[in-house]
Amino acid sequence: MDRVKRNVIVGQSGGPTAAINSSLAGVYRTAKERGYNKIYGMIHGIQGLLEGRYIDLSEHITNYLDEELLKRTPASYLGSCRFKLPEIHEKREVFDQIFAKLDELEIDCFIYIGGNDSMDTIKKLSDYSLLNGSKIRFVGCPKTIDNDLALTDHTPGFGSAAKYIGTSVKEVIRDGLSLETPHGQIVIIEIMGRNAGWLTGSAALAQGEDCLGPDAIYLPELPFDVDKFVEKCRKGLEEKPSLVIAISEGIHTEDGTYISEFGSASDYVDAFGHKMLTGTASYLANVLASRLGCKTRAIELSTLQRAASHLASRVDIMEAASAGGAAVKAADEGDSGVMIVFNRISEDPYLCSTEVKDVHRIANEEKLVPREWVNEEGDNVTKDFVDYVRPLIQGDVSPVMVDGIPRHLYKPGYEKLL
Amino acid sequence: MDRVKRNVIVGQSGGPTAAINSSLAGVYRTAKERGYNKIYGMIHGIQGLLEGRYIDLSEHITNYLDEELLKRTPASYLGSCRFKLPEIHEKREVFDQIFAKLDELEIDCFIYIGGNDSMDTIKKLSDYSLLNGSKIRFVGCPKTIDNDLALTDHTPGFGSAAKYIGTSVKEVIRDGLSLETPHGQIVIIEIMGRNAGWLTGSAALAQGEDCLGPDAIYLPELPFDVDKFVEKCRKGLEEKPSLVIAISEGIHTEDGTYISEFGSASDYVDAFGHKMLTGTASYLANVLASRLGCKTRAIELSTLQRAASHLASRVDIMEAASAGGAAVKAADEGDSGVMIVFNRISEDPYLCSTEVKDVHRIANEEKLVPREWVNEEGDNVTKDFVDYVRPLIQGDVSPVMVDGIPRHLYKPGYEKLL
């Protein structure tokens, strides 16, 4: 006899992306199709759930158009959190509180969309369910622009950010060719990814038949030497009037000091006695200007790079939705303590399938760019890197334009929930 | 008897935009259709011409696809300059040199695509042609993201930048709703336009049925009071956990001191003794963090906002092309010392026609945002402002995507020219 299906709850966790809401749409669609009753959304993840904050998603996704809008809405529709559960033996009462809430809501499947920290949540909750004999299934759905999750070929959110970065860097390179400056000019573009260089390396996507690409790319995986960097720029300006260089926010010296720390040293104090913070790119732009006497500009792609739904990758958005669906399917079919991963079956044509993997092997792990995908000098990525990223940025998800601006999903009073 | 048509020369001047190459495409198309022989392009504007640097555009635009790619290529295809001609009575020899070059190239029409400084070039050259009896016609084609040219309803380049700003600000606002922070968070977005607030005001386009829009907008036309600003933010955080505020790069105090000067005061000196420069947004983010104890983030839209061809406005790109065509038509029909302007015939439906206006009334003038289009408190724009901008951001110019990234026009050896 078929078991009676009760409810599903889904949460979003960690940094927002352009694709995380597409996974949410995928969870919703598959849970509906598989006959679940209610699909709840945690507001601000597990932290909100602990405070009793959740919504009935069917009040927000009322038709197929809403689903399509949700796929095109950046950031976390449900709100996110960076809440790390305690170890089970340290504070059991937190877990009891969560399971009581889940039982009250008659939850069968708990889906959490997030990165490595979020997979720690899935790990601990599924571990605890073994202890307390709960039948709830806990499944993780991968998400992070940083692309640093273990065991999966890549993560939803990365492809769209990479497409935005490649496009924006290319536009900035063109811009740099416009005006001649007496002593040359250097633009430093600062890109997210404190430990993993996947996003920074994606600046190489700008290179093609119509663009020489960035003049150097510095990933956080390798130590950064300020003097060598200045020398590289000095030589570069002898050959070209305009350089564009991509750096990770997380570049650091051999001894582990972040370059950003140089820019925020305590000697930068403003008139009020406040410590001034300067970003990595700003700091390096200042160094270059004073050492080489050239014009410099620092551009931080900041949250623009993770929120740029208007330039999302179709492959990314569709894969994000299917990861959400696969998470529900896995939980529905009995899996728990697993995460959905992508498995690249073929390079050409690009083909990926989803699988489930034990979340114990994923949580708190970090996948970095392999050394062999960076050139010998350590100042650019190789063709293998670009070949790996290229399929993930293919295709467009045309925004739903209303009066000249992309439309997002929004229900009356939406912001009051967050 | 029809006069024998000889050659046209066209140059681009001032800051690059997403639409300036569309005007170049328009010049090329109309000059061809009107039977001109060669169409030359100055490399880096009048400065390059003085050095004998120019190309035959037909070697770059070889078919209709090239024209379409050119319309979608950001920055200045020909390279730009910020060269100001001397007064005629100060240095006649510069003018003699230019006219000798133009005569050598058998030029009938000289088209210059640019902003107020560039119109000064058209003014002086057409004035000089009256003195030396030259038959060359000098016509200006408007271009500037700043939208600060006199006598024209708006300028090509502005609409695309405004569309990018409205969209990006909206995405950043959504991003800001994702994560809860204990003491709230404030994002400051710094937008171009040192004297004119048209671009900064366009942040208001983010507001709609699905977005509350920015919480405050500060234009450079009104004095900026740091204390009032901090107080506004303090009150804002009492009502909302996440604020997004748009500021112009040119905001300044009552006595004319730019806020950016506070951030680059001489007391910010790094370990090498170099003066550190901080942007306006970074400075204000630092002030807010220390005075209010909230999380802050500074985002400078930098050159991204003027180079974002991937999100160009169709109205803007098409108008830019027609302005280029209208410039050639005007010159062909005998006008000189004029600029093409846009005249808004109807608001609803939006309808603009082109006209010619005496460049003497435009050069070196600056059109600012009228006081009545800013609210009483001076911290946001009015509905009239948005109603004025809205038609200019309508429609899309779908980028020609190749392997996931927008394609630009590029001919072998192109970069060597610049």
Task: Explain how this protein is built.
The structure is a homodimer of 418-residue chains. Chain A is of the alpha/beta class. In chain A, 35% of the residues lie in helices and 17% in strands. Chain A contains 14 helices and 13 strands. In chain A, the strands form 3 sheets. A 7-stranded mixed beta sheet of chain A has the order 3-2-1-4-5-10-11, sandwiched between helices. Chain A is elongated and about 75 Å long. The model of chain A has no long low-confidence stretch (mean pLDDT 95). Chains A and B meet through α6, α10, β9, α11 and β12 of A and α6, α10, β9, α11 and β12 of B.
Descriptive keywords:
4-stranded parallel beta sheet, 418 residues, alpha/beta, homodimer, 14 helices
Work out the number of β strands of chain A: 13
As a percent range, the share of strand residues of chain A is 15-25%
Mean pLDDT of chain A: 95
Largest interface: A-B, 88 and 89 residues
Largest sheet of chain A: 7 strands, mixed
Distance between the termini of chain A: 41 Å
Listing every helix as H and every strand as E from the N terminus to the C terminus, the arrangement of chain A reads EHEHEHHEHEHEHEHEHHEHHEEHEEH
- Helices and strands of chain A: which structural class? alpha/beta
**CA-based gyration radius of chain A:** 23 Å
The side-by-side strand order for the widest beta sheet of chain A comes to 3-2-1-4-5-10-11
Parts with pLDDT < 50 across at least 5 consecutive residues of chain A:
none
Which percent range fits the helix content of chain A?
25-40%
Shape designation of chain A: elongated
Number of helices of chain A: 14
